Amino acid sequence: MRFIFIAPVIHEEFYEPLKKGMNDAAAMMNVEASFTGTEGVDTTALANLVTQAAAEGCDGIAINLIDRQAFNPAVQEAMNRGIPVVAFNTDAPASGRLSAVCQNYFQAGRSVGARVVDLIPRGSKVLITVHDAGVLGLETRRDGILCELNARGIAYTVIIAASTPEASTPIISRALHGDPSIRFICGTGQADTEAAGLVIEREFADSGYGVAGFDLSDQILRLILGGVIHCTIDQQPYVQGFYPVVQLALYCRYGIRPSNMNSGATIITTKEAVDLVKLKADCLR
After folding, report:
1. Is the pTM of this model over 0.85?
2. Which of 41, 94, 197, 199 has the largest count of CB atoms under 10 Å?
3. What is the DSSP string of 96-122?
4. What domains are there in the chain, each with its CATH number?
């Protein structure tokens, strides 16, 4: 059997453990699995890849459903052909997919917001960064963070950064230099969280700025250990690659219907947590 994973911004470092999980599960279940997608956020191109995969006769599709509606026709077409579709990383239940393996993004956003509200200097503003517009999971995390900020009456500004840390850093830097009232940054993804930490380290060190965000990278973990980033939220991308393969294989072979799985929202903030994450990463290599 042959399964296809489809995702946006495929160059993101975030996907490396996800692809490792996909490959490990494919070997265990004796199936083939490949990972493809788009360089940027292009829902039309992603939906076309779903249609193409179905037309070429793959046995199952896993897709990162970054939009609530854009994938509905393509998903339904695949399902009508008898090709099961599951979601990974981001979910859009109205698409008609069989299941989703992803984080509860709104609750994860609330977890970050609740953790940092007492760290934000009174009377200051929070910068909320989203690395790409139109990505459902990032916007839902943002909404969770804003739920906590609004409850405390904390002012904020939301900006669109970029899909890589390198491209995000000048955007975040301009925002901070342009508004001195900003004293805390909340990222919503790996690229902008890492970039926010790098900007503070390089340009605002020891100036009372705070950073929190999402996802893992070597730089994010280093910046947590260095006290630059207060915390990040891990959504365990390995399992987001592993379980969709298992679910598709079981469904195709035995008719066992896939079920939703929450991949978690672990807060990484201490050396012990960082060391544990690094140990896990070493085991997954």
Report:
1. yes
2. 197
3. --S-EEE--HHHHHHHHHHHHGGGSPT
4. 2-103+236-264 (3.40.50.2300), 105-234 (3.40.50.2300)
